[in-house]
Amino acid sequence: MGRIVSRGIRSMAVAGALAVVPAALFAAEPVASVSAGIVGDYLESRTSDVYTGPCFANAEVNLDGEEAVLAWRVREGSWRGVDLAGLAVVAAVKAQTTLGDPYAGPPSAKAVIVVDERASAEQRESLTDLARTLGGELLDDVIAVREAPIEARFESGAGHVRAGDLVEASARPLDHHDHLCGNESVFYPPLTSVSDATPSYTLANAYRGGEFDATWSTPLKRSSFVGEFSR
C-alpha cells in the first residue's frame, strides 16, 4: 500500500427586517458588532485507509495509522481577534495506536505544528492556538512549533499542502478504480470537526522532520479527507 517508515530521527449572517423609524432616532442607536468567525479548507491524510472494507481495516489496525497530517487553510475571518485570511497551519501527529480506533480509547499522541512563515508574530500565535483548538486532544502534547513557507491549494475536491521540506499532503477525489473489494465505506471518520468531509485518495502524506522517533511517507492509499472547517 505504499508505506515507507524510516526509524531514527525520530486548523450568522444577521438577517431581519428593519421597522420604519425616524432617521434621527435610528442614527442615535448604537451599532452592535458581529464576529465574522473563521472559515477555510481542511486536508487530513492518515497512514491507514479511512475509506475501505472491514477486511482491509482489520489488517491495518494497530499496525498502521499511527501517523497523520492535518492542515487548515483560512479563507477568511479572524481567530481571537487576529485576522488570518490567506494563511495556513499544519500539524503532524504521531500516536502509539491506530488513530480513530474506537476500541483503543483516547490516543496518546505527540504533535508538531508548522505555521506559515508569512505570518506576523501575533498571527503565528493565533494560528498555533487555532490548530490546537481544532485539533483537540490530538494536539494536547505539542512538542515543537516550526515556521515554514506553506503552499496550500484546494479545488474541485482536491487538496494540496506543502510546508517547506517538513510536511507534505496531497489528495484527489476517489474514482471507480479505487474500489478494490466493493464493500468500502468510511471506516474511520475525520479526526477533527469538519463539514462536507469527503474521503479522498492520497497522493502524498509525508513528514520529514526530526522531532519524532520516525519519519513517514505513505502515498497511494484511500487515507485522506478533504473538507471545510468553520468556528
Proportion of residues in helical segments? 10-25%
- State the helix count: 3
Number of separate domains: 1
Shape: globular
pLDDT < 50 runs, ≥5 residues: 6-36
Radius of gyration: 20 Å
| Percent range for β-strand residues | 35-45%
Mean pLDDT: 86
**Helix-strand sequence:** EHEEHEEEEHEEEEEEEE
Straight-line N-to-C gap: 35 Å
SS-based class: mainly beta
Query: How many strands, what sense, and barrel or not for the largest sheet?
Result: 13 strands, mixed
* Total number of beta strands: 15
Topology at a glance:
Elements: E1 4-7, H1 23-28, E2 38-46, E3 51-52, H2 54-60, E4 67-79, E5 82-83, E6 88-95, E7 109-116, H3 121-135, E8 142-148, E9 150-155, E10 158-163, E11 167-173, E12 185-186, E13 195-207, E14 214-217, E15 221-230
Parallel strand pairs: 7-8
Antiparallel strand pairs: 1-14, 2-4, 2-15, 3-12, 4-5, 4-6, 6-7, 9-10, 10-11, 11-13, 13-14, 13-15
